[in-house]
Design goal:
- By secondary structure, the protein is mainly α.
- It folds into two domains: 22-146, no CATH class; 151-181, no CATH class.
- The chain is 64% helix and 6% strand.
- It contains six helices and two strands.
- Strands 1-2 form a two-stranded antiparallel sheet.
- The chain is elongated, with a radius of gyration of 28 Å.
- The termini are far apart.
Length: 181
Amino acid sequence: MSAFDAPRPIASGPALADTSPVSQGRLVRVELRKLMDTRAGTWLRLGIALLTAAVVVIFMFAAEPSELTFTNFVNATSMPQAILLPVLGILAVTSEWGQRTRLVTFTLEPHRGRVVVVKLAAALVLGAAAVVVAIGLAALANASVRPRSTVTGAGRLASRVCVTSSPCSWSVSCRAWPSAC
């Protein structure tokens, strides 16, 4: 009997039908990691952040003081987002081919539709996080350029009315609207 005639051992692992499918949450986390850990994803996120910050700084110094409103800051921060966030979606779909991981991805999750949906969800999560950061940057920039006297709405009320507390009583001093007290 030669080595070629020897019977092959049978795999002792669980049967394929007994394994449960990978959860959507785990697949989204894997896709987010792929978007975050690659050089292209890192440079794209860094480019979005730096370009958004540069646009805000340029807008702060180039705009007229009357134009420095929160709405205009949000509009200014949304321009780099509108240009670069679609690239994030393209990167999510094409990174499988560039990084040569498509064989592993489609072996672990053979349903192509699930892979596409998960890639879309990961791009939406990362895009939403970028938009939240941009709105936060717009709010921070708006707060840094607005003097206290021109703050409107609830901010004006908070800056004009001082509530002080003593051990025995509460008192309100109204500097802006003395007739209201």
